[in-house]
Amino acid sequence: MAIQDVLQFGNPFLRESCVKVVDFESPEILKTGADLQDTLHDLQRIHGRGGGLAAPQIGSRLRMVYVNARDRSFHLCNPEIVERSKETFEVWDFCFSAGASFLAQVTRNLRIRVEYQDIAGGKLSEEFEGYFSELLQHEIDHLDGTLFIDRVNKPESFTMVEEWDKQHADQLHNGRSV
Ligand SMILES: [Zn+2]
Fold it and tell me: How many structural domains compose the chain?
């Protein structure tokens, strides 16, 4: 399909809630699914980081997320977090809708259970831990107009990406979460 422009922080569209995917055979669903894939792959090639993209970031109001990270590539339609572990962890987060230009620390649940549908509408329930847990909490937030900057409780952690790379070069090369 096509690589789409990524909406940037400040665009009011990013603050709106998305609507459920209903007709899994509609051209709109198929186009959004393919565009998410093409756009994320392009962003990963350019920035060398990032593992997911949510539909509102490319101007679609569908509850759809695409993940391409580590050994997995998949779409999540209508994802819902139905359980969260009490255990949390601190992660460095960033967003392609902030030009992937800065990072900040947020607290995420270590494990979550997500109910979602695949791109064909099949229903799934899956537990995610660590990297995929934090990634999906970030992406699913997008579907409700929530951005990671809303979750930052230590504003002093905001770090420009060039500076972060200088300080964390070893972790980045070890495939750390960002
Ligand atoms: Zn994001």
Answer: 1
CB atoms closer than 10 angstroms to residue 27: 8
- Structural domain harbouring 97: 12-173
Q: Are 138 and 93 in contact (CB under 8 A)?
A: yes
pTM exceeds cut of 0.85: yes
Task: Kindly state whether residue 20 falls inside one of the protein's structural domains.
Answer: yes
Residue 127 falls in the annotated catalytic set: no
Residue 90 forms part of a structural domain: yes
**43-90 per-position pLDDT tens digit:** 999 999 999 999 999 999 999 999 999 999 999 999 999 999 999 999
Side chain identity at residue 10, one-letter code: G
Which of the following is catalytic: 16, 25, 139, 156? 139
The CATH number covering residue 52 comes to 3.90.45.10
Q: Tell me the CA–centroid distance for residue 22 and ligand 1, in Å.
A: 24
**Centroid of ligand 1 to alpha carbon of 147 (angstroms):** 7
Domain-located, residue 2: no
Whole-number Å distance between alpha carbons of 92 and 69: 16
Residue 136 and residue 18: Cα distance in Å, rounded? Answer: 16
The count of other CB atoms within 10 Å of the CB of residue 6 is 21
